[in-house]
Specification:
The protein is of the alpha+beta class. The chain has two domains: 106 residues, no CATH class; 64 residues.
Length: 185
């Protein structure tokens, strides 16, 4: 498994944790094949899900076919609901379809990695530049990498690996280095 992606087991553990914590907000998920999903929580209950053109229970069923995903939770107001089975049934389904072979509790990368040393201005610039290169998934992709990058140079290298074309990668690196210098590093 690439360090950039988490196993489906980690995703299921995150969903369980969000339920236990009575979370309100959206869990944004992206897959290796660049499909996106959302699971929406209201007071720890799963109230909506979407993935690959499906909504509700069908979205959850299709999502578990992925072995590795990226994910990020955003606290916030619930603006959308879909017809969903009870949360406990969803969790049972996820447990039955994703076996944790590690034998113990698993922490997501964001739980074990210290905060990045990047300033908010640097993070914003790098995210904006990445969006030019890869489109709307840039915010999610950047958040994962910027959280664990040790410095601006490391962040640029990590983000550049996400850009599919060499030409776009070269432009991104050149612009990122220039903008970071402008900010003062």
């Amino acid at each position: 498994m690439s360090a950039d992606y988490a196993s489906l087991t980690l995703l299921v553990n995150e969903i369980k944790q969000l339920c236990r914590a009575n979370s309100v907000g959206t869990l944004f998920i992206s897959t290796r094949d660049n499909k996106s999903a959302q699971v929406i929580f209201d007071q720890g209950q799963i109230v909506a899900a979407s993935y690959s053109g499906e909504v509700g229970e069908e979205a959850i069923k299709k999502l578990v076919a992925n072995k590795e995903v990226r994910f990020r939770f955003q606290n916030g107001i619930v603006l959308r609901r879909t017809l969903m089975p009870p949360t406990n049934e969803i969790l049972q389904f996820l447990d039955g379809n994703v076996a944790d072979k590690s034998g113990g509790p698993v922490k997501s990368e964001r739980q074990v990695v210290a905060e990045s040393t990047l300033s908010s201005a640097e993070k914003m610039v790098l995210t904006e530049l990445l969006a030019v290169a890869i489109g709307p998934m840039a915010e999610l992709v950047a958040a994962e990498h910027l959280q664990v990058a040790s410095d601006a140079s490391d962040a640029i290298k990590r983000l550049a690996k996400e850009i599919p074309s060499q030409e776009s990668t070269d432009i991104f690196v050149q612009d990122a280095v220039a903008k970071i210098k402008e900010i003062g590093r």
